Each structure stands twice: as structure tokens, then as C-alpha cells.
């Protein structure tokens, strides 16, 4: 069964988003998303400083089955990437909520509230 933490928000492309106390948003691939893709073999991360709109492709995750874009759940600027995820792409499978891909400084911090809560995401699956 897919694990869906209640304290995160979710985008339609199976990205999760977590608001941090400093106003930044941490983004990763949900448990369901990594399960759909299969065993990860590559994670391509964005450039720090990249400005993105909500829904823009930001990172790439490739598995033995396919490749997919990880999209920005909210508009903002990429302020940090997780090089450890690129070095060990399989960590997206083994720890999808501990392995984040990138952090954004959102243009509008309230935009995260427009994403699905855990119950809505669960129902969408």
C-alpha cells in the first residue's frame, strides 16, 4: 500500500511538497510516483537560481522502465538541489519522503495551499 504522509501537499504529477519554517518549499517524488516509475537509475537536478512557474518541468527522474519530469508544484526560484539524490537515485525508491530533489523559494507562499492534501491525493489514486 502506498504511504501518503498527512503533513505534505501533493501535485497531480505525484510530487510532494513540504513548507519549511523559513518559507521555502521542499519537493520530492511521492511513494506512489516512485512505485509507478520503478527502480530509479538517474536523477537530473535543475540549476540553482532557475525561476519556474507552477507545473514547469524542473528535474528528471529515470528508471529502468521510463523517464519522467518532476514538476514545480508552486512558482518560485530553485534555491538548493539534493546532490545526494543524483549520486544515489535508488534512494528515491527506498526513502521517497526523505529524499527530496530541490528546494524552492516560492513567489507566493500561500500557493502551496492550492495543492492536494493527503486525503485528496489518496482519493485521486
List keywords for this structure.
125 residues, alpha+beta, OB fold (Dihydrolipoamide Acetyltransferase, E2P), six-stranded antiparallel sheet, globular, GCV_H/Fam206, Glycine cleavage system H protein, GCV_H_sub, lipoyl
Radius of gyration (CA) equals 13 Å
Strand content: 35-45%
State the helical fraction. 10-25%
The topology string of helices and strands comes to EEEHEEEEEHHEH
Using DSSP, what is the number of strands?
A: 9
Termini distance? 11 Å
CATH superfamily: RNA polymerase II/Efflux pump adaptor protein, barrel-sandwich hybrid domain
> What is the helix tally?
4
Total individual domains: 1
Contiguous uncertain segments of 5+ residues: none
Based on secondary structure, the structural category is alpha+beta
Strand order of the largest sheet: 1-2-3-9-8-5
Q: Layout of SSEs?
A:
Elements (H helix, E strand, L loop, with lengths): L8 E2 L4 E5 L5 E5 L1 H7 L2 E5 L6 E2 L4 E7 L3 E5 L4 E6 L1 H5 L3 H4 L5 E7 L11 H7 L1
Antiparallel strand pairs: 1-2, 2-3, 3-9, 4-6, 5-8, 6-7, 8-9
Write structural notes for this entry.
The chain is α+β, with helices and mostly antiparallel strands and 125 residues long. It has one domain (9-117): OB fold (Dihydrolipoamide Acetyltransferase, E2P), CATH 2.40.50. The chain has helices at residues 31-37, 83-87, 91-94, 118-124; strands spanning 9-10, 15-19, 25-29, 40-44, 51-52, 57-63, 67-71, 76-81, 100-106. The strands form 2 sheets. The chain has a 6-stranded antiparallel β-sheet with strand order 1-2-3-9-8-5. A 3-stranded antiparallel β-sheet has the order 4-6-7. A hairpin with a 4-residue loop joins strand 1 (9-10) and strand 2 (15-19). The protein starts with 8 loop residues before the first strand and ends with a helix.
Amino acid at each position: 500500500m502506498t504511504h501518503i504522509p498527512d503533513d505534505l501537499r501533493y501535485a497531480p504529477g505525484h510530487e510532494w511538497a513540504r513548507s519549511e519554517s523559513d518559507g521555502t518549499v521542499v519537493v520530492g517524488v511521492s511513494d506512489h510516483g516512485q512505485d509507478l516509475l520503478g527502480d530509479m537509475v538517474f536523477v537530473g537536478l535543475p540549476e540553482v537560481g532557475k525561476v519556474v512557474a507552477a507545473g514547469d518541468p524542473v528535474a528528471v527522474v529515470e528508471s529502468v522502465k521510463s523517464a519522467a519530469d518532476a514538476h514545480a508544484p508552486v512558482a518560485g526560484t530553485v534555491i538548493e538541489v539534493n546532490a545526494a539524490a543524483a549520486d544515489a537515485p535508488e534512494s528515491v525508491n527506498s526513502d521517497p519522503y526523505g529524499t527530496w530533489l530541490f528546494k524552492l523559494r516560492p513567489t507566493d507562499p500561500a500557493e502551496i495551499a492550492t495543492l492536494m492534501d493527503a486525503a485528496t491525493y489518496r482519493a485521486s489514486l
